[in-house]
Amino acid sequence: MAALTSAGLSDLVEAAARPEARPSAAQLLPVTAAAEGLPRLERLLVGAARRGPRELAPAAEALLRSGGKRVRPLLTLLSARAAAPGRRARGRVALAVVAELVHSATLLHDDVIDDGLTRRGMPAPRVAYGNGVSVLAGDWLLAASLDLALRSRASGAMEALVRTLRTLVEGEARQLALRGRTDFTLEDALTIAAKKTGSLFGWCGEAGALAARARPAVVEALREFGQRAGCAFQIADDLLDFEADAGTLGKAVLADVAEGKPSVPLAIALKRLPVLREEMAKLLAVQGAEAEELQQARVRAFAVKLNRTGALGAARRIAEKERDTALEALGAVPQSSTRELLAHVAQVLLSRSR
Asked: Between residues 259 and 120, which one has the greater pLDDT?
């Protein structure tokens, strides 16, 4: 499947290539991003993609060059510095690259699972290169991340990464099993957020501390910080689906509702107003069988009713609780300006959708 010759691709590019609402790490903390070497990290990421098989490298490189928030590598780098102030943490840059490679691999896979058309304001790699290439390019990035984690020589980082990948896949499998269903619960949505997003954020905090050879209590504290901050981040991401428009996000409005993905605000709304389950089932049943404008109108009407349940405010309060728990975990981390930056990151991750 070739992007430039696909029917309707020009319309897709025009619709997708609009400013994104989700800021990058460099935008969130410009001075810190520069100090932590994120510009160099970009070069390392592209280099990792280019070392792949020639059949896969273009797809991997296209995704990595398309940008992204780079919050995970920033969290890894800051955690390494905060875990042992004044101590050089060997391998921290390599582990920061690993964090973004793993995340990018999951995006390549997710777009195939979800039949995604756009990613970061551009046609998804699966549109440009085909599903098979997208899957294998994701596999390559995962293999590259494992190799890099091993070569970082940060004791325990590789073992922690393997555990994290196992947890992440469990979350993906759970989400896939619930896709298209309307009987999922808040517990289901929170479990998926913790496993899919929280687990990798947790690894970022843990890996940074391991690179710094920090005390076990500090390693655990930064893992907990990342885990909780990641959950808050995911819930904020869920909220973006209801609070922003397609042009801003570069993807379909309320795509998760239309695709039947369990999310925290949606789970709360379905519990508070059970009749929405029937309406959601109807939305899923007619998806692709009616005009896009009519489908979007139905989804927007559904969203209005959902909003009246107060689910968005309730979801934000859950996210705020996760953030507060993340901040509490920092109490076991040595006092430093970097620890304060980590706290600031947790605050920004939650406020970004407002």
From this structure: 120
